[in-house]
Amino acid sequence: MTHSPTPRFKTTPFSRRRRHLIRYLAGGGLGAIALGLVHPETAASREPDLEYLCSMFPQNSRCADYLPGAQAVDETGQPIAVDALLPTTIPGQPVPVGGLPDDQTTYLVIQSGPAIAPYGIRPICTHMGCTVDWRAEQNRFVCPCHGSQFDGEGRVLAGPANEPLPLATVVTRQNRIGLVDRAPSVDPR
Ligand code: FES
Fold first, then answer.
1. Do 125 and 148 form a contact (C-beta atoms < 8 A)?
2. Using a 6 Å cutoff on CB, does residue 161 contact ligand 1?
3. What pTM, to 2 d.p., does this model score?
4. CB 176 within 8 A of CB 67
5. C-alpha 167 chain-centroid distance
């Protein structure tokens, strides 16, 4: 079987990105207003509200000091510091981390800079649920069950899977990395 590898980091047309950004910002503002109306702030309600708000709209001003989700950890279980991790990364090469309650790896997406993308890859094949492996030498995720392949951001390169890999939300705050097992409000792919 031959494949024509698609570009790994397909750029989104600027107008589409701008529409996404506007929707994203509008969603953050409306989400904050809605939460404020539905839940007048009390000490008891603040934490769950912030968890939801800051995982869905991490750029909201109320989230400046709040890290939602579970903290990303390395293979020894130690929390990962952003300033220690980034110098070891290569843009385009996903970095496996732990931390989510299901104990499954999440792959941080490393963008140019280098910088950590606000989303990570959950390595769960969308064909029948096998765990895909990152093959650095092939620059792609490969499913061991029936051979589906995905690029570094989880887009399908080869079937039988026909949906991209699921995403988690990734938030960086104060040198820490938070993982939320929920797709970001806008899928960047
Ligand atoms: S489960 Fe991955 S290709 Fe079938």
1. yes
2. yes
3. 0.72
4. yes
5. 5
How far is residue 17's CA from residue 133's CA, in Å, rounded to a whole number? 29
Which DSSP helix (H) or strand (E) runs through 169? strand 167-173
Per-residue pLDDT tens for 39-78? 444 444 455 688 888 888 878 888 888 888 889 999 999 9
CA dist 81 and 118 (Å) reads 16
DSSP-based three-state secondary structure for 155: coil
Tell me: pLDDT of 11 over 60: no
Q: Whose CA is nearest to atom 1 of ligand 1?
A: 128
Largest CA distance in the chain: 60
- Per the listing, tokens 């047309």 go with 13
Q: How far is CA 21 from CA 12, 13, 60, 114, in A?
A: 12, 12, 13, 21
Radius of gyration of the chain (CA): 17
Question: Span 71-90, mean pLDDT?
Answer: 94
Mean pLDDT of 33-39: 46
Cα separation of 89 and 114, whole Å?
7
Task: Verify whether ligand 1 is closer than 6 Å to residue 163 (CB atom).
Answer: no
- The 10s digit of each residue's pLDDT in 62-71 is 888 888 888 9
